[in-house]
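Fold this: 6-phospho-beta-glucosidase BglA
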Amino acid sequence: MYQAAHYELVASALAVKAAREINPALQVGCMIAMCPIYPLSCAPDDMMMAMNAMHRRYWFTDVHVRGKYPQHLLNYFARRGFALDITDEDRAALSEGCVDYIGFSYYMSFATKATEDNPQLDYDETKSLVSNPYVQKSDWGWQIDPVGLRYSLNWFWDHYQLPLFIVENGFGAIDVREADGTVDDQYRIDYLSAHIAEMKKAVVEDGVDLMGYTPWGCIDLVSAGTGEMKKRYGFIYVDKDNEGNGTLARSRKKSFAWYQQVIGSNGETL
């Protein structure tokens, strides 16, 4: 997996370099799926487990931004006996293809804790995540954490000092269309409003350099995460179910008019 990831990172760096050769004025970014990982408690081993989890999950950002692998990852490779094929040409490409800004998605936060059967505190996303009792969850078990978006913005800014761009943020839910075609998705409004409010705090109070915000997504579509149509994110309802039945007719949800006001006021009206 790590070898494949290396090839992807080299290809990305070469794409950045090619874009600048085409137009030196272009600003080129990366895309990171951000789910901050909290320690379940203030126990020192839980803190170290959370630190290692963030290392394992976000080293991609180090390579995109700094053009080289972080030392903690190289040490991890050595400890696990992973010998990646990394050429001098690859290293040069990574160094020359650093991004100008960080784009990222944010939907939820994670939590982790140390366990007796993992004395090295190695993070494995299939086993190391635990439920956070301090946040609510969606129908799909995604932890709803608006403050986590503010934390994520600050985490990225503290680590990299590059402009940030929230390119995905949304709430997947089972929407019920009424007989008149309307959908009362107040839960989506509540989710997005709370997240945008925390985003504003990160900019106004914390000084984070944020380029912009785009929600996921404007119209219902098949969920990339679960392959389901019933997991809906849009402001516009699409008449199609998981089996492909439906007319594809579109109707505006309650959140449509709400978000229209949000963007019309540049976020002042939430």
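The helical segments are 2-22, 44-66, 71-80, 88-96, 146-160, 186-204, 254-264. The mean pLDDT is 97.
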